[in-house]
Amino acid sequence: MPRQTDTRTRARDEFARRLADCGYAGVSLDDIAKAVDVRKASLYHHFPGGKPALFMEVADHYTQEAAALLQSALATPGGLRDKLLALAASYAHGTYNSALSNQIYYAIGHLDDARRDEVSTAYVRGLIQPVTDLMAAAVSAGELRTGDPGFLATAFMELAATVQPASPQDSSAPSSADRLAQDVVDLFLHGAAPDAP
């Protein structure tokens, strides 16, 4: 049993890595089987639905992990700025895998309607709705101007996703990553205009 679990996990992780790098069309089960040192038939044993089934495993695992990171950031003590800093830092420190997230989004076009709905619903429930709820609470509390909380959530997440993780070779990486997170939050909360005199 441990070998089976290990094969599933290694196949899922290899598929995720290749999906982030090459997109759905660039991932083949032959390549996954070679990378995890199993026969292709073994992959079908673990994922009877083939490539779409393996993709679903990757999407589900990613969404659960990312939702846990998001919930941790949203549990940060303090106000809206503190929570947004924690969210932006997860991008800047490379904790949140933007490339994989984007490729999961693009890949759903290759799925049947039922699978597409399943991935989309889980993604919205786990990753979009909590940020939308944060924005709605901030609008209600007067921390943000009146606006559509869904738009505000999407705008912030898109802005945060543009932050590339700091290089691990850079000795100042943690401070530069934190600075990037602060810049994202300041841009979101205050815009790009200079401060009024």
TrEMBL record:
Residues 28-47 bind DNA. It comes from the Bacteria. The keyword Plastid does not apply. InterPro entries: Homeodomain-like_sf, HTH-type_TetR-like_transc_reg, HTH_TetR, Tet_transcr_reg_TetR-rel_C_sf. Signal peptide: none annotated. Keywords: DNA-binding. Residues 5-65 form the HTH tetR-type domain. Pfam families: TetR_N (PF00440). This is TetR/AcrR family transcriptional regulator. It comes from Streptomyces argenteolus. The lineage of its organism: Bacteria, Bacillati, Actinomycetota, Actinomycetes, Kitasatosporales.
